Amino acid sequence: MPFGCIGLRDEKNYNSLSDITDKYEIGQLLRAVSHPNILQLIDTFETRKEFYIIQELATGGDVFDWILDQGYYTEKDASNVIRQVLEALAYLHNLHIVHRNLKLENLMYYNQNNRSKVVLRDFYLSRFENGAITEPCGTPEYLAPEVVARQRYGRPVDCWAVGVIMFILLSGNPPFYDDTDDENSDSHNRRIFRKILAGDYDFDSPYWDEISPAAKKLVSRLMEVDQDQRITAQEALGHIWISGNIASEKNLKEGVCAQIEKNFAKAKWRKAIRVTTFMQRLRATDVSGRLPVTPRSSMSVAHEVTIETPRPAERLQTPCPLEEEVQEQQQKSKSEGAAEKTE
């Protein structure tokens, strides 16, 4: 069986037993997992400076490239991808595991001979949901509102991310974006976070004109601002767009591929230099009024991961600086979501 090796560099001081056990959590988590749509753990070993994780090697390429290579791409193809992601996610959630970094770049085809099998990768930020999770982490454009708002969160954040993935697969566009040139500026990310908190996205024409109402409905259920009202992975598997035979077979390739090439050719979406770029912008503002950047995890091109020590005491001292601006709209979204769920 072919395999890949990931080295976790150890660059933190250990001041408590929990600090030491955190080092091995990824290996412990992956040992508990066995699912056809998740890269399997082969072994782990440790040197004086590194902790290595050996997993199955997926050689089929990522979903981005698969879409661009197809001569014909339809809603049904997107539905097949999302179904497999939801099956893996429902399995993980049943084990009380939160992935926390689901994104289109982390979906791969297992091999070139079986292009229909999609596998999840990148469990560097995953953890067991055995208590309240408050640590803000993930990829900014895929963050759920409760993470941006620095509230306690859990498995529903993964379902939100699936909604973002589905939105991109069907339109080629991200649901939350900002057209400013400087994508690394504080103001750019603040605008993105405001839109996420408010659930401010649209099924824009012409990109969504040919997409079925059932697909749009599932996206809305997955990207429900209120995590208590958000559809679960298991519930989503029963949605008619996934379990029924109603996904359109109209060719979407021209429109979707053009938008993917336009929106995702940029380095921050595609390259594997850093897993998370702005996650610590969710802390309280500093004296200058800017949101500071302290990445928790970074991944080099050689897939070596550095884990930095989080500082829990600093995390929730003050509310998210954007939260009050959208609190009223969140309450409105909650009421609307409850009404839609009964339909």
UniProtKB/TrEMBL annotation:
Q: Extract the ranges annotated as region (Disordered).
A: 299-343
Q: Where along the chain is composition biased (Basic and acidic residues)?
A: 331-343
Q: Which InterPro entries match?
A: Kinase-like_dom_sf, Prot_kinase_dom
Q: SUPFAM superfamilies given for it?
A: Protein kinase-like (PK-like) (SSF56112)
Q: Gene3D superfamilies this protein is in?
A: Phosphorylase Kinase, domain 1, Transferase(Phosphotransferase) domain 1
Where in the numbering of this chain does the Protein kinase domain appear?
1-242
Tell me one Pfam family matched here: Pkinase
Its name, as the record gives it, is: Protein kinase domain-containing protein
